[in-house]
Amino acid sequence: MAGRGAALADQFDKALGELMRTVEKMPDSQWKATCGDEGWTVAATAQHVAAQFPLEKTYIEAAAEGATPPTHKWDDINGVNESRAKDMSSISRADVLKQLRDGGASMSAYVRGLSDEQLDSTAPLVLANNAPVSAQQLIEGGVLIDHVNGHLKSIKSAS
User: Fold this and answer.
1) Are 63 and 133 in contact (CB under 8 A)?
2) CA dihedral of residues 60, 56, 99, 92 (deg, nearest 10)
3) What is the largest CA-CA distance in the chain?
4) What are the phi and psi torsion angles at 135 (to 5°)?
5) Which residues pair with 125 in a beta bridge?
6) Most exposed of 1, 30, 33, 110 (fewest Cβ within 10 Å)?
7) 14-49: string of b/e by CB count within 10 Å (b at 16+)?
8) 137 by DSSP, 3-state: which?
9) The domain defined by 4-157 carries CATH number 1.10.10.10
10) For residues 92, 37, 152 and 27, what is the CA-based torsion angle, rounded to 10 degrees?
């Protein structure tokens, strides 16, 4: 019987699949439109989702595996995001789709392999005033699945 890791990976795959289908079917005119919530182009916003997978994994690993938690503060993350959004404002759709596909496959495999015990493990989250956060909360919440869904909503509403 598959554990919670498999169910969470399936949820992630579903969200990422919807994002990728949206990007693939999007008219060229919308690809360079601005996403209201972020103030970035659709191209930069979609690329941002893929670019965050390695960082997101470090947060999840801290909880699931007892690794050292990242110490980034919101200002650090936001500064990097803004800089990258400027650099990626005109990235090609093909490049973004490759990043989403490759990074998403790696994240999905990692989440799928987590045991229920690992999903229940916690680590202090600097971004939440060092509150203990479980690996499952990180996966479901703003760090992974909700992160994809939040930007997907913004991308769909861009014009």
Assistant:
1) yes
2) 160
3) 46
4) -60, -40
5) 131
6) 1
7) ebbeebbeebeebeeebbebbbeebebbbbbbbbbb
8) helix
9) no
10) -50
Whether the per-residue pLDDT at 1 is higher than 50: the answer is no
Which ranges in 115-159 belong to alpha helices (H)?
Answer: 116-120, 135-140, 145-157
Rounded to an integer, what distance in angstroms lies between the CA atom of residue 143 and that of residue 63? Answer: 12
Closest CA to 8 of 121, 146, 124, 126: 146
User: Where in the chain are the domains?
Assistant: 4-157
What is the C-alpha to C-alpha distance for residues 63 and 145, in angstroms, rounded to an integer? 16
Model pLDDT for residues 9-43, shown as the tens digit of each residue:
999 999 999 999 999 999 999 999 999 889 999 99
Nearest to 111 by CA among 68, 69, 53: 53
